[in-house]
Every structure is written in C-alpha cells, then in structure tokens.
Amino acid sequence: MHVLNLGILAHVDAGKTSLTERLLHTAGVIDEIGSVDAGSTTTDTLALERRRGITIKSAVVSFPLDDITVNLLDTPGHPDFVAEVERVLGVLDGAVLVLSAVEGVQARTRVLMRVLRRLSLPTLLFVNKIDRRGARETDLLREIAARLTPSLVPMGTTERLGTRDARFVPGPVPAALDVLADHDDGLLAAYVDGTLTPARVREAVAEQTRQALVHPVFLGSAVTGAGVGELLDGVRELLPLSGGSPDGPLSGTVFKVERGPAGEKIAYARLFSGTLRARDRIPFGVGTFTEGRVTGLSVFEHGADSRADAVEAGRIARLWGLADVRIGDAIGEPPKEQQRFFSPPTLETVVVPGAGVDPGALHLALAQLAEQDPLIGLRHDERRRETSVSLYGEVQKEVLQATLAEEYGLDVTFRGTTPLCIERPAGTGAAAEFVKGDGNPFLATVGLRVDPAPPGSGVDFRLEVELGSMPYAFFKAVEDTVLATLAQGLRGWQVTDCVVTMTHCGYCPRQSHAHQGFDKSMSSTGADFRGLTPLVLTDALRRAGTVVHEPVHRFRIEAPADTLGALLPVLGSLGALPRTTDTLGALCVLEGTVPAARVRELEQRLPGPTRGEGELESRFGHYAPVTHGPVPSRPRTDHNPLDRREYLLNVTRRVGS
Ligand code: GDP
Fold first, then answer.
1. Which DSSP state fits 596?
2. What is the distance in A from the centroid of ligand 1 to the CA of 589?
3. Is 263 exposed, middle or buried (CB count within 10 Å of its CB: 0-12, 13-18, 19+)?
4. Ligand 1 in contact with 15 (CB < 6 A)?
5. By Cβ atoms counted within 10 A, which residue in 289, 444, 620, 648 is the most buried?
6. Which tens digits make up the pLDDT trace of 212-262?
7. What tens digit of pLDDT does each residue of 57-107 get?
8. How far, in Å, CA of 407 to CA of 261, rounded?
9. CB under 8 Å to 29, separation ≥6 — which residues?
C-alpha cells in the first residue's frame, strides 16, 4: 500500500478550496464540483468557513492516484493560525503551495514558503487562476524567483493566458535546466554532449524535489481544470511516498482531535513507524506519557474513512478510546519531528455570555474546546464568574464565537483584547515558615527560594532537602502548589523562567495514643502543605521582585520604496522599531519589532501610507520588559496569598471544615 500525505497551502483567496474540489473531482471521488461561492465544498466543515470563505480547521480527504492513496490534509489559511499550520505540516510528506496568477506572491505565501523551506518539505507550486483577466506568467515567475524561492523549475508554459480558454502546455523550459544543473553536474555534461533525454530531466526534477532543493511550478485554473491533470502527475511522480517500517517501534503524532456524535474523543494521528491495532494499549503524551487502550480505528480511503483492524506506518488513522489525548501528543515513541517550537499566544480577552447564556454552561463548553486543543488557553475567575481565553490573533475570536454559537448554541461577545504579559523574577528571594512557628496555622514547614533562570527555560522545581525526610505526598503537594501559584505573580501574570528550590521541610507525624487511637488534629495533611506553600512562595517572590514583560512580535514589511517616508512615522506612533531597512528593486524591506498589542493596528493602518501595497508579516519574537506607562497588572482569581489576612480567612476556613 503506497500512501502520500499531502497538504495544500495558500494565501486566503488564492483558490485552495477550489483546487481541492477540482482534484477530488479529477480523481473521481466526487461527482460534482462544489463551489466555494455557493458554500458547498467537502473540506470546509464549519458553517463559518463557508460564510467567510476561509478554511480554518484541518480535515482529511483521501483519493486514489493509480496505486497510491493520497491523504489530502486541509490546512488553515489565516495567519492567526500559523501554529496550527505548523502542526499539520509536521505530518506531511509533501505540499502544494497555491498562488494566484493575478495577485502573485502575497504576504501569507511568503510566510508559508519560509516554513516549508525550514522544514525541507518537498513542495510543488501551483499558479492558479490563469483564466482570469490580468493573469501573468513570465513576470510572475520572475516575482516568485525574487520573493519566494530562486530554485524554481517551471514544468511548462501557458497559452491564451487571461482568457477562459487558458491552457497549460507541459514541456521543458530552458531556464529550468540552469536551476537543476546547480545541484547536478552530470546534467550539464549530458546537455553539452547532446545526450540529455526528457526522462533524465524528469528524473533530476524528481530527485531534487524530494530533497526540497527545487520547486516545480505548474500553472492552471481550479475553475476550468486547466493544468490540474499535470499537477496530479507531478504529485504522483515528483513527491516522496510516506515511508516508515510497519515492523518498527510504534511512533506517531496526533494533529487533530474532535468529538464524535456521542461526545467521544477521536484523535487523528499520522503513523511514522510500526503498526497500530485496535485493542492495543499505547502510551501517548508530550514529555510525560499516559497509557490508553485504542478501542477503534479507521483509515481514509476513497474519499471516506473506513473501519480498520490495524493501521501501518505511513498512514493517517482516526483513533477512538484515548480519553485524555490532545493535539500535539506523540503516540508510542515520540517522533524526532516533535521538538518544534510553537509560538505562545500573546493576547487575551474575556468571554462575555450573551443574554440568557448560563456562565456555567459557557465555561463547560470552553473547557471542552480547550481540552482538545492546547492552542486554546483558559483562565477562570471564580469570584467574578468570568472566563478569559488566550489568543493568537483577533480572527481567533470570531472563530471561537461562531464555534460556540453553532456547536453549543451559546451566544457570546468579548471584552477588548489585551496583551498577555509574563513576570520574570528580578533577583533571588527566599522565605520559610515552620511548624508551630509564629502566625503559621498550618502543620507544615516549607522553605522556598526563587532564582531567575534563562529566558525560555520555563519553571523548574528542585529539592535541597532530603527526599526521604517526609512522605512523598507532601513534597508532591508543595510542587503542585508552587506551579499553580506561579500562574499569578505579584502583578497577576504567569511567573516564568525561574527555578524554585525547596530549602526547608517538616511535618507532624501521626502520634499514637495508648488508649484513644491517635489525635488527628496533631498530624500534618496534604492540605497543610497546599495551604502554606502559596504564602511562603509569594513572600519569596516579593523579596526577589518581578519584572512584567510584554510580548513583542518580529515584523517584516515590504512596501514601495517611495512610501518609506510616510510609513516611518506610522510605525513610530505604534511603538514599532524598524531595525533594518533594505531595498529590493522598487521595494523597501523593513524588519524590526512591534508590541504584540499593536500588531492589529499596524495591519489596519499599513494600507494608508503605502497606497495599499504594503505587506506585513509578523510572528512572536520575545518578551521585553514594559518600560513606559503604568505596569500592566491583572486581577487575581485565587485566594490572594499576597494579602495574608484575607488568604488565611478563606483558606483556614476550608482546611478546618
Ligand atoms: P481559498 O481561500 O484559497 O480556499 O480560495 P477559494 O477556493 O475559496 O477561492 C477564492 C475565490 O477565487 C473564489 O471566488 C473562487 O471562485 C475564485 N477562484 C478560485 N480558483 C479560481 C480560478 O482558477 N479561476 C478563477 N477565475 N477564479 C478562481
């Protein structure tokens, strides 16, 4: 069984959905071609996607191509979902990047190409819409070479460009030979000798495409079908099939999780190695692994998915039975590809229930969405009965709003978007409280020290006391409470990039009394450690001090060179700092940083000074200390260990009960 896992990627509106439909039709999987404009396509599952005409969630459709089963994985098209795109790319064997022959290279196309090249994923380019008026060829190929990748191999030319009758004429293009010869000395020699055959050229194209050294270019139209057959030939002959031994150790990646009609979790996994059977018990997770039994399996075949008893390396399977599975989990042995860096969410907003919406039901729905998808972060404020979500961009709000309305019947709005800051310790701080010490109502001794750690290192918990000196459950209670308490630092933000060391520990053991068993009130419980730890930790943090950092994006803007003068003041007013300025023909290229909170505004204001021709790319860069204006803070959602009196009032009442 030969399998090829393929992704189609594009800037919004380039024609990804139309091309998918056309491919499925050409392959004979669907009888009729749906129309995006009429909202009847196969891969756009969400009604929202139909309305907006954009594709957000990845779905799998398969079609046969001779003896190969091609699994077509849909990928999101909006920059807010770049993290989701990267997640899907990790399970692909090859990709088709779609461009419009009219609009040419767009901001999103560049972002995608950069990611594809970083991953060395074999990629074909498809220049779509050659039937539209204003479609370009020579000039466009030059633009692609200059702005996307110089390693282009045009696989043919067009006829009657820009008309309904536009055609793709496959055949050797002389310029392609130069590019191929760069990586293949024999090719040039054969050309000079006059012994170069079309088969030899085709072989070189395939060889170099599989190594992601070159990118073959096809031209055509998803609407008329021109060039689509040739693109399919290219997919079959030029892209690598998925490999992996079915006899090897089990290894795969979960790239999507959804719920079935009965609410059961279904995981989509790509298998890199081994064979998975229904009823197998398998480990899954990221970092720490849990085990679960697979109760059902299905694979994609002929446009539908069908039940299977076993799934082999290379394929994509749907798995039932893993209740705690999340997107991004490895199954079996973690594949090497898993150590990829995902950008953190940098914005946050409060979800406001609409009239008649029960906050409890809303919280439950949000929790269910978040549980499947690590990209959705939730924070629940018990006191205000409010839930906020972390975001990668504004579009994510609309998606969430529509999902809640359509899947759960819940109407919501959002309060304004704010940056999601972090706190890092400014220095070292330590504190300790002892059993029966002054003002310590808990039967526990806890000493903690907070030290700063390098950016990006996260939180580490260590012991400087003997592990055997008290029951393990108490250590565990301290560690868990430390991690939970750090979710809200002195200003209410997640504290990170620090090491917390336990320097003191102690407890009251159970004491037997000769006559009446033992006195319960005199022995420590986990609750004592959970109660005391937040007080000691916030004391230590206070001594260390924290610095609030805001998320900063790296940006890249391309705009007509003569608009630079008008552009710079706009950047300045948004707190954007251009660090390098370059020219690329008639374009200027600015690279620099901008606070995450201002990215949206920058996007909206860019067209003004650049006559609508400015293109912005931005992605998370780093966290920077907030230097001007008031230090941002956010309200706490816990019992506030910063206020000892209030905290004890709330907590000891609970411990006592
Ligand atoms: P997506 O956003 O990349 O999925 O793009 P769609 O497939 O939704 O197409 C965007 C718009 O371009 C729709 O109005 C399509 O009808 C139109 N379109 C897509 N492909 C072609 C094509 O080859 N020729 C022409 N003339 N229009 C196209």
1. G
2. 29
3. exposed
4. yes
5. 444
6. 999 999 999 999 999 999 999 999 999 999 988 999 999 999 988 887 888
7. 446 888 889 999 999 887 765 556 666 677 778 889 999 999 999 999 987
8. 11
9. 61, 62, 63, 64, 302, 303
Contact yes or no for 387/380 (Cβ under 8 A) = yes
Q: What angle do CA 387, 390, 394 make, to 5 degrees?
A: 110
Best CA proximity match to 54, nearest among 4, 127, 108: 108
Q: Is the CB of 37 under 6 A from ligand 1?
A: yes
Task: Extract the tokens encoding 591.
Answer: 């690279």
3-state secondary structure of 140: helix
Instruction: Determine the residue type at 545.
Output: G
End-to-end CA distance of the chain: 63
Long-range CB pairs of 457-461 (<8 Å, 24+ gap) are 457/497, 458/496, 458/497, 459/483, 459/486, 459/495, 459/496, 459/497, 459/498, 459/499, 459/500, 460/498, 460/499, 460/500, 461/499, 461/500, 461/501, 461/502
* C-alpha span between 201 and 206 (Å, rounded): 9
At residue 449's C-alpha, the angle toward residues 445 and 450, to 5°, is: 140
CB 540 within 8 A of CB 448: yes
In ligand 1, the atom with minimum distance to the C-alpha of 224 is 23
Tell me which of 13, 17, 18 to substitute to probe ligand 1's pocket, judged by most ligand atoms within 8 Å of the beta carbon: 18
Q: Quick one: pLDDT at residue 172?
A: 77
Q: How far is CA 359 from the centre of its chain?
A: 28
Is the pLDDT at 341 greater than 60? The verdict is no
Report how far residue 432's alpha carbon sits from residue 553's, in angstroms, rounded to the nearest whole number. Answer: 39
Ligand 1 lined by 131 (C-beta under 6 Å): yes
DSSP state letter for 25: H
* 549-580 tens-digit pLDDT: 999 999 989 899 999 999 999 999 999 999 99
CB 13 within 8 A of CB 128: no
Is the CB of 38 within 6 Å of ligand 1? Answer: no
Residue of 406, 252, 272 lying closest to 329 (CA atoms): 252
Residue 485 phi/psi, 5-degree rounding, is: -65, -35
3-state secondary structure 183-241: CCHHHHHHHHHCCCCHHHHHHHHHHHHHCCCCEEEEECCCCCCCCHHHHHHHHHHHCCC
Give me ligand 1 centre to Cα 16, in Å.
7
Cβ of 77 below 6 Å from ligand 1: yes
The answer to whether 560 touches 586, Cβ cutoff 8 Å, is yes
Counting Cα atoms < 13 Å in the Cβ hemisphere of 61 gives 22
What is the 399 CA–ligand 1 centroid distance (Å)?
21
CA 342 to chain centre: 6
Is residue 418 exposed (0-12), middle (13-18) or buried (19+ Cβ within 10 Å)?
middle
Q: How far apart are CA 550 and CA 499, in angstroms?
A: 21
